[in-house]
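Thread: Newbie trying to understand structure tokens

Hi all, I'm a second-year student working on a class project, and my supervisor (Dr. K.) asked me to get a predicted structure for one chain before our next meeting. I've only ever worked with sequences, so writing a 3D structure as a token string is new to me. If someone could post the tokens and maybe explain what I'm looking at, I'd be very grateful. Here's the chain:
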Amino acid sequence: MAYAAVLLAVLGFAVGAVFRLTILLSILVFLLLVSVVFSLARGFDFLDTALTIMVVQTILQGTYFLGLVARAFFAADHRFRHIH
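---
Reply by user tm_fold:
Sure, no problem. This is what the structure looks like when written as tokens:
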């Protein structure tokens, strides 16, 4: 399970650093479906299924935000020329 969380975090960061919001939305819909199928296959009850969905979405969206921040930081660094 921890490997899946790390994979989601890396995916979220990469999507935030490289792609736009539309890619994020399509990935979120896909992960929603995968989370539901995973929960049903494991026999989770409603509360465990909801928690699984929320954790997956939160990890991905949080690291997407960090990717956006990193992209903005590096873009701002390239805008200013350092004069020595």
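A couple of things are worth pointing out once you decode it. Residues 32 and 53 are 6 Å apart (CA to CA). DSSP finds three helices and no strands in the chain. Feel free to ask follow-ups in this thread.
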